Every structure is written in structure tokens, then in C-alpha cells.
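Reopening this one. Same input as before:
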Amino acid sequence: MNEYELLDSGHGRKLERFGQITLDRPCAQAVWNPSRPALWKEANAFFTRKQGLEWRGRDQLPGNWIIEVNDVRMKLSTTDFGHLGVFPETRAMWNWIRDTIGRESQRRSEPLRFLNLFAYSGGATLAAAQGGAHGCHVDASRGMVQWARENAELNGLEDHPIRWIVDDVNKFLGREIKRGRRYDAILLDPPSFGRGKGGELYKIEHALLETLQLVKKVLSDRPCFVYLTSHTPGFTPIVLKNLLQQLLRDGEIDSGEMLLTGTDDVFAVPSGTWACFRWV
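Same output, byte for byte:
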């Protein structure tokens, strides 16, 4: 089931439906004209960054609400930065992760071990769990890890084997290497700029190579995939593909754009990039 839909985009904005709530938010890459101008009047709330960060109509929205996105139930809430607790452009990836882990699990005697780094509110963690993986969910924000745990409860996965970790990703990976813990499938969505649990500075152009080297060291002897995504301008599909291709061997690699999508007559909106190295 899917209760998300891109309704329209244009003039630097996007109009999206999240269950019963329709929101109008910035979208710099939507430089074309809107296709359905009349629909925009139906927005329940509007977010702008033109004169600081501001919601209009936020007081008319519920404090939080629940929708199902590609068979994962998610709690949504408007944040001061205009985010909601889900990035819908990743939902096709959730399907791929769930299906790939499900198929691979049938060929193995033990569950796959899935590691989600910079894991946010847990959509991919939960999709992997639905596929049968045992998970490890890592994010530097205690609030986001708690949000992800609430999403696990919404999906009946509160007792599924998932480790919930609040930590700086590079420090966590270093400790996992020393502990000898290894993972069969790894997803990472590094931020352009972020702070670790202890205030550690993470800038993708400087820190990502170290992160990837550490990721390589926690791969199991029988890996399934490494999936890298990015919302950083300039980190094109080819950039991500080159990074993984230089790091890993003896597998296949694909890359592309993550898209916000609606019905066939609605322009798809590019909203990030991905590359996936998989062993077949």
C-alpha cells in the first residue's frame, strides 16, 4: 500500500499528498511550469525558506499522523526545517531492499545482517526487516532513532532483531571493526553536512572516503550489496558509481537518480542520486 503521491511541481515548488494531508514545499530543481495549477489551492500547509524557515497553515495540521509508504507505516510530523520524517524518493529503494533480502534469505541458512548508516526515521531499516534481515540502525540524532523505533512499533517490528544505535557513524564503524562484527548488506545516506553524537563535524567531501573504507572493513565474507545514496549537489550517479567501483570488486554496479513520482502524466522530480554494488 502507498499513501504518498506527487501531485504536481513547478516554479521551484512541489505539491505532495501524504495520506489525507497535501503540502506545498520548496523544490529548487522544479524549474518548469506547474501542470495542474488549480490543484495547488488544495494544499493544507505551505513551507518557505525565502525569509527564514516558515510554515504557513502548520497550526491547522495534526501534531503527527500516520501513512503507509510502500508497505511501511510511518509516523509523520512537520519539522522546523520543512521535513516530515520520510523522504519519498527512497521508497523504490525500500522495495528493492525488501525484495533482494527476501530472495537472498531463501539461499542462506542464517538471516542476512543489514546495516543502515545515517539511517534517519527507519524506512529502509524496516523494509529490510520485512524481508527477513536482522538489522542495525545507526544515526547521530537520538530523536531520530527514537522516531525510527516508534515506526518499528507501527509495523509490528518492535521485537524484531534490530540494534538501535545513537552514534557518530565513523566512530561506530571503527568499533565494529574491532569487535569483529560483519554485515551482509549495507546502506548509507551520508549528509552534505552534519554533526555526530559528540558534536563531530561531518562534511561529505572530506569524510565520505573514510566512511567507505570503514564500510568495506565491516563487510562479511559473503556480502549481498552496498547501497550508497546522496542528496548533495554535484554528487551525480557517476560520482557515486565511481566511488563504489574504486572500493569494491567482483560484483555488478548500477546507478541512477532517485525520483519523486505521481501518476504517469505528472513530471517526475529528481531528488537525489544512488549507486548500488551487488554480488550475484
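So the earlier flakiness isn't reproducible anymore. For the record, The domain at 4-76 is CATH 2.60.40.1180 (Immunoglobulin-like).
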